[in-house]
Write a structure and sequence with these properties.
It is elongated, with a radius of gyration of 24 Å. The protein starts with a helix and ends in a 12-residue tail after the last strand. It contains 13 helices and twelve strands. The chain has three domains: about 50 residues, Orthogonal Bundle (434 Repressor (Amino-terminal Domain)), CATH 1.10.260; about 130 residues, Rossmann fold (3-Layer(aba) Sandwich), CATH 3.40.50.2300; about 140 residues, Rossmann fold (3-Layer(aba) Sandwich). Strands 2-1-3-4-5-11 form a six-stranded parallel beta sheet, with helices on both faces. Helix 1 crosses helix 2 and helix 1 crosses helix 3. The longest helix has 17 residues. The chain is of the alpha/beta class and about 350 residues long.
């Protein structure tokens, strides 16, 4: 027999009003929440989400829009957002726009039609998409942009200080005697790519070293583009002594190119990669790598969404949260100062 709210009230010794308030999305005392959650689990109570949404005018669903399910950053983000948002009683709908701007806008409209309470997006940053996001926000659906900044509109953002960490990486390479430093950037129109390039250039400027344009190449944040751009760099008349790959997938592509050219990391060429510390530790020599605080990015996005929906805390708009990435030292950078 299906458990009812009366059964929950009897099990917990709480009033039917308290049970109903909690089931319908209201806030109750922490100790009461714990009792009700225990009763729901023990009695197998099933919440009627449709009826609940009619009462509360909420779907208790969050939409997540990402460019690809094959990208390490995106899949990690989805995993952690889902983990943290579920703590607050929300489920998620995941949409993949496959790097296509038109499909991205279709996915946004799809989630709005499903009456999600909020959208977390890793956007193409196109002008058309930003216009649509602005309309969605104005109509009452909360949007949080993660990783990438939308520069044409006001939108809540959770991102990493890309410029600072890129500058730190480049300075580290310069301090180890490198001046022929190549950087494999992401797409020009995406804020993360432009910020990481900016940090690279600022490091050269701070040391008074001219920037060699042939060492600045652009990929698409996928492995094959990292491979192609690394091959292009290695075939220059004066190839770089160090390569900084600005995301994980392109880092793999760079390593593939080095292997094909039979170049040994550190011995023949220095490399700094991005993300996925576990892989960096497996590669020999261990890779010096930038790590982004993925769990914190996801947690901050989840917390921001809940605060917006609950409206219990006065927040400025837009709310921009900036986190710091770390440079984890491995053995993939050779000090060539004595060779200059």
């Amino acid at each position: 027999m299906t458990a009812t709210m009366k059964d929950l009230a009897k099990y917990t010794n709480l009033s039917l009003g308290t049970i109903s308030k909690y089931i319908n999305g209201g806030t109750v005392k922490p100790k009461n929440k714990q009792l009700i959650d225990e009763a729901i689990k023990e009695l197998g109570f099933q919440v009627n989400q449709f009826a609940r949404s009619l009462k509360t005018n909420r779907s208790n669903t969050i939409g997540i829009i990402i460019p690809s399910m094959e990208n390490y950053f995106c899949t990690s983000l989805v995993s952690y957002v889902e983990k943290y948002i579920s703590v607050y009683g929300y489920s998620v709908m995941i949409c993949n726009y496959q790097e296509k701007e038109k499909k991205e806008r279709e996915q946004i409209n799809f989630l709005v039609s499903k009456q999600v309470d909020a959208i977390v997006i890793v956007s193409t940053c196109s002008i058309e998409t930003q216009k649509l996001i602005k309309e969605v926000i104005q109509k009452g659906t909360y949007v949080v942009s993660v990783d990438r900044k939308l520069d044409k509109i006001e939108c809540d953002t959770v991102a990493v200080d890309n410029c600072s960490i890129s500058k730190k990486v480049t300075e580290y390479l310069i301090e180890n005697g490198h001046q022929k430093i190549a950087v494999v950037c992401g797409p020009r129109k995406i804020s993360t790519a432009s910020e990481r390039l900016q940090g690279y250039i600022e490091a050269f400027n701070s040391y008074g070293i001219p920037v060699y344009q042939d060492y600045i190449v652009y990929g698409d944040y996928y492995s094959q583009s990292g491979y192609k751009q690394a091959m292009k760099l290695l075939e220059l008349e004066e190839p770089p002594t160090a390569i900084f790959a600005t995301n994980y997938d392109m880092t793999l592509g760079v390593i593939k190119a080095l292997n094909q050219k039979k170049l040994q990391i550190a011995k023949d060429i220095s490399v700094v990669g991005f993300d996925n510390l576990s892989i960096a530790e497996i590669i020999q020599p261990t890779l010096t790598i930038v790590t982004q605080p993925m769990k914190t990015l996801a947690k901050k996005a989840a917390e921001l969404i809940v605060k917006r929906i609950d409206k219990k805390e006065e927040l400025s708009f837009p709310c921009n949260i900036t986190l710091q990435a770390k440079l984890i030292m491995g053995n993939s950078v050779k000090n060539i100062s004595s060779f200059l």
